[in-house]
Amino acid sequence: MTPIITAFAASPDRGRGMARDMRVCWALEEVGQAYEARLLSFAEMKQAAHLARQPFGQIPTYEDDDVTLFETGAIVLHIAERHAGLLPQDAAGRARAVSWMFAALSTVEAALLELETAHFFDAGEPWAETRLPLVQGRVERRLGQLAAHLGERAWLDGGFSAGDLMMVGVLFRFQSALDPFANLADYVARGAARPAFQRAFAAQRAVFQAAQA
After folding, report:
1. How many other C-beta atoms lie within 10 A of the C-beta of residue 151?
2. Is the fold of 4-86+196-212 the same as that of 91-194?
3. Which of 38, 59, 98, 122 is buried most deeply by CB count within 10 Å?
């Protein structure tokens, strides 16, 4: 079967490529795998049919002949393992690429999401003034460490891999945090310039525009 992913029928990011289904679409575009999108409203995401695929009522999900998956990292890893192009051929290189996938989600995105929460949801709390500088400091430290590793490389470890796809996908959502780190901003721009990214972005944008029509 042609893989089916679930995505927002009306994305809260207004078609700016920040929803997590974008990372799955990008991976499928990179490996040349056709796919179908099942577009869901917020109400449909909480109904039994979707909860059977995604117990937490989120997107994206992925279905093929063999498996139904949720969690973006797991989906992208599944795609990368089934198709050439997103993981190095040597075992050590593959392991390092997978490490960078985990780092993107667990080390970098987690810190950035905490900062987003502190800015937009905790701002009115009495402890926000004390907490925000601490969270900001953690983000700057993490991004500084990532920038130091990247240096003048084009990609994180050799050629472009699923590790870069996940890392660029994370950083693309938080580009304002990259202002002090020119090499990270360039890294994201390099990823976003890839034809597969552009195709995935255009597809997500078209869904949003159709919802507005």
Report:
1. 7
2. no
3. 59
- Residue burial 10-21, b: 16+ Cβ < 10 Å; e: rest: ebeeebebbbbb
- The whole-angstrom separation of Cα 159 and Cα 38 is 32
Tokens of 211: 């919802």
CB-facing half-sphere around the CA of 75: CA atoms within 13 A? 28
Q: Per-domain residue ranges for the chain? A: 4-86+196-212, 91-194
Q: What is the pLDDT of residue 206?
A: 81
Its pTM surpasses 0.90:
yes
pLDDT by 10-residue block (mean), the chain, 213 residues: 91 76 96 95 95 96 95 97 96 97 94 70 59 75 96 96 97 89 97 97 81 69
Predicted confidence at residue 21, as pLDDT, reads 92
Separation CA 143–CA 42 (nearest Å): 33
What's the CATH code, domain 4-86+196-212? 3.40.30.10
What's the pLDDT at 148? Answer: 97
